[in-house]
Request: fold
Amino acid sequence: NLIIKPYFVVKNYMKNLHHFASGGTIDSHWEGSQDTAVPNQVTAVGPYLTQVARLPHVVSETLFLKDSRHISTKDQDTIAARVAETVDNRTLVTIGTYLMPDVARLIAHHPMTAHYDELDRRVVLTGSVVPLRGFLKSDAGFNLGMSVAALEEPSINRISVVMNGCVLEAAQIRKDLSTATFSGMEARDQLPFSDFDLVTTG
Reply:
């Protein structure tokens, strides 16, 4: 029997991708004098999407750039409101992994998101364990690429989180601090690897 596995494609005619930067490890750099990663002064994600990934129609907006452990409740409400009220149909939020589940649920519970189905709008939140800038072995680029692809996949939840190769529903995720991953990921993945074939070319 011929088995045809489903696939998804990032369409060249994708409408505006609105990126909201709020900091986190993905938008940090190593500061030797402090022996730790500190938030960038200017987002590195926006230029990555337009200059490295060469995505068209990207609007990158910086809300603030903070370590998520320093983001206040008011800051979280600001992220949720700005994201939920944007007019663009595809929204990518980069944020620290500590607060990612909480902010994802705030967005999901915002009154404006009740209309997302009829408006064909999707939001994906992502981040990384290693900064995008200055590290060869960073998961940031992988997570950003998968996030953009997931935004064009009609089967995923309207508000989702992309981390570690999984697409997770906002209402179900929990971060496991002992492994720096999200618990129950394999069981809750909306796009499990078993449903796809990976073919490298060129």
